[in-house]
């Protein structure tokens, strides 16, 4: 494990980290376990480890570097410790022109620790399971692959991920944000933004992981873990995301479909979810209440709840059932009335119902059956039908 720490008066940018410049200065101090290399501009590097040194040519010839400290004008710039870098490797990198990026990837390819300054830092951990702490500035923090623990600390901090938003998962759990993709996951605190390969989003936008909902939505896990939410989260983090597991359970629909549970739990969806895990799944209880049809069949609820299926299901569970509210929406008649909807949705009744809730009601559309082509000539006035009035032509 390599540790990299910023000094107190300069920002740290690991993109500029370089340990191959040991040939570019003058060795001004040498012992078997320490070398001091001085550069123009009052800069110096302090190397610790075990060394062989040619006093005639003033050249470093062998040994192992265990730490590197760079300073300017007597003030620490960066300290790199816990190294196990053969001098021969560092000299070969310098003589062979190995790219700085390849060198950094080799140096920081393990389980490393990076600590920033009070300024704006750029810290990259590359491979391995890294621990990164930003400091007080506005930092760019990149754990690379592996399992990384990242604390942005103060400032407006951004974590870099190497996958698109669509190929990632992000959830909040116990005050931390977990961002998961095929490369591993980051455990984040005090991080304001997550930068994916295609877009940057606010960390606060990640949903809270609901362990009971996850268990209820995946009955094999409910059988294995019962109501253990921590075990549920460990499963999701390690396996569930990559398996494409569902995170949410329709607890409101469960209450709406089961009047005895609505009487027992009211609108307490957590208790309802727990009941399903412990009892309801074994009783083959339903939880597929069609909240959209319920909204469409009761336009006053569209006015009250908009397109909120949870609110609609809870309304039916606690009030609508006792009021004798209708559950059915005549989507077929709705489509038959409007050629533009037929062109858009074909015979998709679910899409037609969704359209009425989202837009059709506000547009003044109705779902009453069309009058027969023969016999008594009845015409339904749209606005009047919305007020439950039939106009006879």
From TrEMBL:
InterPro entries the UniProt entry points to: Hemolysin-typ_Ca-bd_CS, Hemolysn_Ca-bd, Serralysin-like_metalloprot_C
Short name of one Pfam family: HemolysinCabind
Domain of life, per lineage: Bacteria
Coiled-coil segments on the chain, per record: none
GO molecular function, one term: calcium ion binding
Name the UniProt record assigns to this protein: Calcium-binding protein
